[in-house]
Amino acid sequence: MPSAEWQPRWRTGDTDQMLRHVALFRWNPSTTSDVIDAATAGLAGLPPAIPEIAVYRFGSDAGINDGNFDFAVVADFESRGDYVAYRDHPAHQAVLAERISPHVSDRAAVQYEY
User: Fold this and answer.
1) Which of 26, 45, 52, 77 has the most CB atoms within 10 Å of its CB?
2) What is the pLDDT of residues 29-58, one digit of tens each?
3) Where are the alpha helices (DSSP H) in the chain?
4) End-to-end Cα, the chain, rounded Å
5) Which of 21, 20, 22, 23 is nearest to 106 (CA)?
6) Are 112 and 17 in contact (CB under 8 A)?
7) Are 18 and 114 spatial neighbours (Cβ–Cβ below 8 Å)?
């Protein structure tokens, strides 16, 4: 149990919460490692192109549990507006349209404040 002095940020009444975006993908069965490498390279180019991204992590599932999604993207933003700027940014839209969406059979996403 945490000490009495420790409180999660969401309990302290702070209003300067960050926003986290999590996207999960299942690749089509025909998706090759070259396609995944191209998607990864495209994602790697987004933080330099989109200054609103505070933290950006992505990668393939480690294969520990059956039934998991194949790939995850986790991005942190200082505000909802920063997330929307990322979501709608032409570089992000291009990576989705050209390197990810055509190869995805299933997608799940969530945004939450922390």
Assistant:
1) 77
2) 999 999 999 999 999 999 999 999 999 999
3) 33-44, 46-49, 80-88, 90-95
4) 20
5) 23
6) no
7) yes
Pick the CATH number of 16-113 from 3.60.21.10, 3.40.50.11810, 3.30.70.100, 3.40.190.10: 3.30.70.100
Here the tokens at position 100 are 């990810």
The tokens describing 23, both together, are: 């996207």
Q: Domain extents for the chain?
A: 16-113
pLDDT of residue 5 exceeding 80:
no
pTM recorded for the entire structure: 0.85
Amino acid letter, 79: S
- Greatest C-alpha distance within the chain: 53
**Token pair listed for 87:** 């979501």
Single-letter residue type at 18: M
